[in-house]
Amino acid sequence: MSDTAKTAFLHGGLLALLFALQFVLPAYHHGNLARIMVLASFAIGFNVMFGYTGLLSLGHALFFAAGMYGMGLSVQILGFSPAPALIAGLIAGLVVAALVGALALRTVGVAFMIVTLMFAQAGYLTVLYFGSYTRGDEGFVIQQAQRMLWGIDLSDPANRYFAAFALFAVCLLTTLALVRSPFGKVLIAIRENEDRARMLGYDVFKYKLAAVIVSGTISAAAGAAYGLLFGYVGATFASVQYSIFPLLWVLLGGAGTVLGPFIGTLFMFYLIDLSSGITTAYMLIAGVVLVLLTLFAPQGLAGELRKRVWRGLP
Amino acid sequence: MTLLSTRGLTKQYAGLHAVEDVDFDLPQGQVRALIGPNGAGKTTFVGMLCGRIAPTRGTVIFDGKDISTLPAHKRIALGMAYTFQITSVFANLGVAENVALAARRRLQGAAVQDAVADALAQVGLGDRIDQTAGDLSYGHQRLLEIAMGLVQKPRLLILDEPTQGLAESEVAAFKTLIRALSDTTTILLIEHNMSVVMETADVITVLNFGRVLAEGAPSDIHADAAVQAAYLGTG
């Protein structure tokens, strides 16, 4: 089987499986999986920057929140319906990513991590500062009546699952196409050896900025969808916690693999879910598993798959 | 016609003159060797030509255009190619992908694969096309660097110590390659291996302590007393 056929089989297979699962899963797991698919889309966005371009952002909550508040505030204050509100969320994410990218990319390495972290904290504080609009930590609920997309009620579990699936499928296939394109291969080259990529004539800054914008916009799409599908917009989603989550998910699943973000998000979600059923010290179990994975599968789960089974895994 | 020239090109590091007031002219189609003892400023000099190192002062003119302030990637786009002294391939990527990255700036689609196969065949790595670059031996990585330069079909190819670490047979093949290329490409070669220099270069420039010590045909340089004292040895 050729690499292209294997790739189509593997990624198409996952999408077919996720599509089919909605008809058989019990309600609890059905709801979980919808949430996981939206969060995995966030992780996919993070992975474009971290996994493929080698840029470690510690401020991705900013992009997730930009999408979520861009959508939520335009519903709440401007009275938008879901379709234009989602677009407003995407645009908010794109603009914030372009600005943050243009400034933060003047730094490299640890400085870049700190600058992105600081931008995200500034974003979080901005949400709190404009509490009269955002309701700060408390957040606001998006009512069922405001969540009708083209006559489809997104608060209904079946519709919600399908919407989450559609978002995830678009994000997955977009990154798959991206990393197999000449553009994506330049990003990988920058990750591997930035100086060499520059001396092959590539405008490294321009490529990195494009990666930040794509990454930020995908993350914003996830944030906007999360707010709309689960009906709540709050400052927690702009906090540092939501900058660390995608990093953990991507590291666990496999940075620089298309499937890694989903695998990592699924794994982490159920790790916490299952261990909290056993003991109240569930973070201890989660912590131990994370340490073991870091020791024995430092490339992440999909990374190990690439190392041991198929080197061509995109 | 002069393809590349510099005027007063200087690089100071904290008061130390790594390169000082170098006026340099490279006519189109020439193979020029740049030699000199370690620390003479050769790599700093070519670094300033292709934009990796910012000069303290002086100008670089390529094809009649002042490129002194252009960033490296724009100079490469004008038709320069640079191979690194310290091997700098994409170690985790495939041999073919390394060369393809260099080729895709000017080619698209199926033409890339053909150009990659050609360039690898030219340097004798045709049978290594499916390997990972980092798995190649040091000498083969040097050849891969050269293939990445060739595939860009540059107007000026800058090679920084290309034969370092190559086996005798590979050095011989390299000489043949340079002679074949010299019909179509201007080449600037930093090289320590005197047999390569003497057999491939049309003109040799000798740098010593950041200044041009001598310049001329290989036979003249070989006979030059100052060069002998500085570099070639008196034996």
TrEMBL record, chain A:
Subcellular location(s) of the protein: Cell membrane
Q: Which domain of life is it from?
A: Bacteria
Q: Which GO terms describe its cellular component?
A: plasma membrane
The protein's UniProt keywords, in alphabetical order, are: Cell membrane, Membrane, Transmembrane, Transmembrane helix
Q: Which GO terms label this protein's molecular function in UniProt? A: branched-chain amino acid transmembrane transporter activity
Q: Which residues cross the membrane?
A: 36-55, 62-80, 86-105, 112-131, 161-188, 209-235, 247-272, 279-297
What kind of membrane protein is this, topologically?
A: Multi-pass membrane protein
In terms of PANTHER family, this protein maps to: ABC TRANSPORTER ATP-BINDING PROTEIN (PTHR30482:SF17), HIGH-AFFINITY BRANCHED-CHAIN AMINO ACID TRANSPORT SYSTEM PERMEASE (PTHR30482)
Q: Which organism is it from?
A: Sedimentitalea arenosa
Q: What is this protein called?
A: Branched-chain amino acid ABC transporter permease
Automatic annotation (TrEMBL), chain B:
Domain of life of the organism encoding this protein: Bacteria
Q: Which SMART domains match?
A: AAA
Spell out the GO cellular component terms annotated for this protein, sorted alphabetically and separated by semicolons. plasma membrane
Q: Which organism is it from?
A: Sedimentitalea arenosa
Which terms are listed as keywords in the entry?
ATP-binding, Nucleotide-binding, Transport
One Gene Ontology MF term: ATP hydrolysis activity
What Pfam family is a match, any one?
A: BCA_ABC_TP_C
Q: What is this protein called?
A: ABC transporter ATP-binding protein
Entry keyword annotation includes Repeat: no
**Residue ranges constituting the ABC transporter domain according to the UniProt record:** 4-234
SUPFAM superfamilies reported in the protein's UniProt record: P-loop containing nucleoside triphosphate hydrolases (SSF52540)
